[in-house]
Amino acid sequence: MFYLTTAIDYTNGKPHIGHAYEKVLADVLIRYRRLCGDEAYFLTGVDQHGQKVQQTADKEGIAPAEFVARVTQSFLDLWQKLGVHYDGWAATTDPRHKACVQAILGDLNDKGQLYKKPHSGHYSVRQEQFLTDRDRDASGSFGPEWGEVVELVEENWYFRLSEHTAWLRNYLESTADSVLPAFRKAELLNALERNPDTDLCMSRPKERLHWGIEIPFDTDFVTYVWFDALINYVSFAGYQAAADSGLPDFDTLWTSDERPLHIIGKDILVPAHGIYWLCMLHAMGIPDERMPRLLVHGWWNIRGEKMSKSLGNIIDPDALAEAFGVEALRYYLVRDIVTGRDSDFDVERLVMLFNTELANELGNLCNRALNMSQRYTGGAITRGRTFHDADLALQQSLADSTAAYREAMDAFEVSKGLEAIGRHVVHCNQYAERMKPWELAKDPEKSARLATVLQHLVESVAHCTVLLSPVLPAAAAKLASQLNLPGLTETGLGELYWGLIPDGHVIGKPAPVFPRIIVEEKKPAVESK
Length: 529
Ligand code: MSP
Known about the structure:
By secondary structure, this protein is an alpha/beta fold. Helices cover 46% and strands 14% of the residues. Strands 1, 2, 3, 4, 8, 12 and 13 form a seven-stranded parallel sheet that branches.
């Protein structure tokens, strides 16, 4: 079982392009694994507790529950619009999650992993954490990234994180795929090196924060939002769930034969996932061979800068999908970024990549293959009997591209996978130009040769349809129907042999699937304040 999760999104603001990227990436990977014939389960959701939610709801004068319900709906609507198909929805106000968090806290307390002590110090309201001197900038003050910083003395519950860091170091060093890509693992190990062993404050007094999960054995406190949120990966996987909970079976999902894969952004590797979460799992008794793998992606920036409300450069995925279409957006989000690295979000590149790679190259191949087959052979596809070198080279190009695509997708490098398909599409268009089916059609004696050339083009379209289906499911379905092979997109990669099109098969009516994006003078408003 391939169990894939994403970060759960904060419900204190609107969804933006960074959220959309992560969910589309996960959706593409899950669709790819299903194409490989594997069983797969995709969990995503929303992080609904915490101080920021409480504050924003207070400002609006409404109950936090009402506020998060509204924001949660905007995420649900967006995933539906973008064709992000998940199997489980992790909303942290779900009573089943609350029960699981409380059961885990009870177990950890019984094991002596939690203790209570007073602490005084500087506290960042924005980051919801106490600060240390290491958080001061060169001038000795706490920088603007911490927002409002106040002095607090309070008693809290702590998790004995320091008891697990030696194990963590050893686990990370000895497990090749614990953190991907490798340079992110190096960052995590460096962070572990720099930080002295401290325990994790995992409660908040209710008088300061009531919007959270109550600590079951000390009801004046709620659970720190990260401690609560991280547990979603197991709670919604059925960990310690009641038999009638409607949740999956934990041991089926969370296996050692293929360890879970958590997709997260680079900002939440250290300390949340790379340190807290792995140590929490270790304290819960999860063995090393069942530890989740962390796939860490980079950030979409805008003209080299971080997207932020204060800069007014937040890109709204909904507006982009309206302006350019869902498939153009999905394609761009996984095409113009290298998994693990940052990239600059650029609407002009979205248009350029769509127009060159999909409208021109692939669109051209589809139009040629399907239209010429209709025009010259009434749509009937006949398998070639004798092959020229150019035909064999095309078959080889397809085999090479498919192998490169699979290798890239297995390594979560979707952009490279798309490049591999693109190479074959370019090869096909060059083949068409050299073979000139429009010339062959003029000579009745060359009808067999014409049929073979068209078969090579149509067969290539069928393969590309299957390979592109994880990224462009709607376009793939349209192409499958034009090919008159409605079940094509259910074809597994294992069945992707040369000869997908049966001998004598008659294709359907062609229609353009990737119309060029024409940009009007006025740019659509995709950046919001
Ligand atoms: N709620 C926490 C995660 C808890 S997981 C147990 C959180 N939420 S978030 O809404 O701020 O971010 C959700 C995901 O979106 C994170 O993985 C984050 O890295 C990612 N992104 C946020 N901004 C991003 C970009 N600009 N670009 C790409 N992804 C980014 O963190």
